[in-house]
Amino acid sequence: MGRRFSKRLLVAILASSMAISATFSANASTKYGKNYVSSVTKAVETSAVSILESEGSLESANVEWSPVQGAASYNVYYKAADALDSSYTKIDDELIRQYPSSFRADVLGLAAGNYVLKIVPVVNGVDAINEEATTQALTVKANKREGFAFSPASPMKTSSGGYNDDGTVASNAEILYITASNVNTVTENVVTNAKGTKTTCTGLVNILAGRQKGYDKSPLIIRMIGEIKASDITGLNEHTYIQLKGCYNVTFEGVGKDATAYGWGFLIRDARNLELRNVGIMMFGDDAISLDTDNQNIWVHNNDLFYGAAGHDADQVKGDGSCDIKQDSTFVSVSYNHFHDSGKSSLCGMQDTQNYYVTYHHNWFDHSDSRHPRIRVGSVHVYNNYFDGNAKYGVGVTKGASAFVEANYFRDCKYPMLSSLQGTDIFYDSKGDFSGEDGGMIKAYNNKIEGATRLVYANQDPIQFDAYLASSRNEVVPSTYKTLVGGTTYNNFDTSSVMYKYQPDSPDDVKESVTSYAGRVDGGDLIFNFTDADDTSSVINPDLMAKVKNYSSTLVSDGSKVVK
Fold first, then answer.
1. Given CB 3.0 to 4.6 Å as the disulfide criterion, which of 184, 198, 206, 437 pairs with 398?
2. Is-cis flag, bond preceding 373, omega within 30?
3. Where is the Pectate lyase domain (predicted)?
4. What count of other Cβ atoms lies within 10 Å of the Cβ of residue 337?
5. Which residues are identified as catalytic?
């Protein structure tokens, strides 16, 4: 079965008062994509910078080091690995954080390539260059900007928010850093009328409300540091949402592996070119992420989605939807997210009456129960996802929806594909227990399926089928195949001009590619490994729930200054 172990390897240099070499050991090993030195497992205060670990990741790089004796703060610099030392650029102080036994810096906004990071302690107000250290060259990879969010046929042509499509910060972007201590006091000048008048808005909620007016479309990057609880934020709506309404060209991202929204979620409405990434969401009040009404070009990726607060309905004991897309939200990509035992992973379409376009790729549905996704009406591409021990079903279609399900790995997913009121849905109960609505059509191609209870293709039964099995990616599904209830056909969106360019992984490679990168950087700071017994269970896992309820950030401080 698929299990993810923490990538963090605790390391330290055998040193206390003696000086440490100012460069990272040339004999360092590489494991799980990180450079590290094998030695003792307890970080100690050293007389020079001692690098514990460093890593190149997706359009970012990070480094951790032991505290240095006498250092009042630290400066961190980066450059391309083959560039001159004169090209070092200092990162923002907010990207440097202190933890109980170490410091960490994350460098964001890097294009793919090789980089070197330099850590310099500040002693008596000046850089102590004799105590600095540099990493080896770290390889940074590009995010996969694929799916309908980046379709040439989409209105905005991109969903990179405040970034360029190569991962670098847009030239005129503003960057806001938010923490539990400043989320209500951070300020930003926002254009609030047609004359271009700028108003100083105070607090994240008010800044976003100012952008909601629609006059300020300049790129904005909001970087969240550490854990922020619902009780820390003034102005959440009645469903404990931060509201990203009417926002254009915005990225909301977590910094590092421990950015956590605890007790609240994200409501996205009337937004264009918006990116949400690298955030852990726990004990949310309604949906964790809700794309609700008239959104275009939205990219939701690399988030960790845990249990929410129990709702009033029987199917909401794990919270409501983890990532719901509804009511005229289109040209959306949901990718590289980690769903941790979600009850209802992703509703796609609610009261929609017209077609829309959504892509799900490289998500880890880790013992989540259902809705991967559950689709009404729209055209949805589902490829290269890892369905890992799903007790109810994988992809479900209703109300004339068309889904292209391609090159996924279904491991112990009870019913990989369902269409309402036909095939497997009514095999055990003629009334069906999936939806009760009219059916939809699934085109399946090149999926790897192991341990399924039942899946019937149209070439096995042309009437009571779950999906049409294509012999090639570009095969057009004949109109002679129709849903049993509703009589709708597959709309063949995947062979039309609206389709984008992409290169799917082999289904044999999906487990590795997904578990290596899904969720936050390094897999986040809450790692939980399910067992085989969890594959068929749809009840709350008490051990995971205990970890979620007892979660608390270990962040000591943000900013470069040392807290003693």
1. 437
2. yes
3. 194-416
4. 30
5. 371
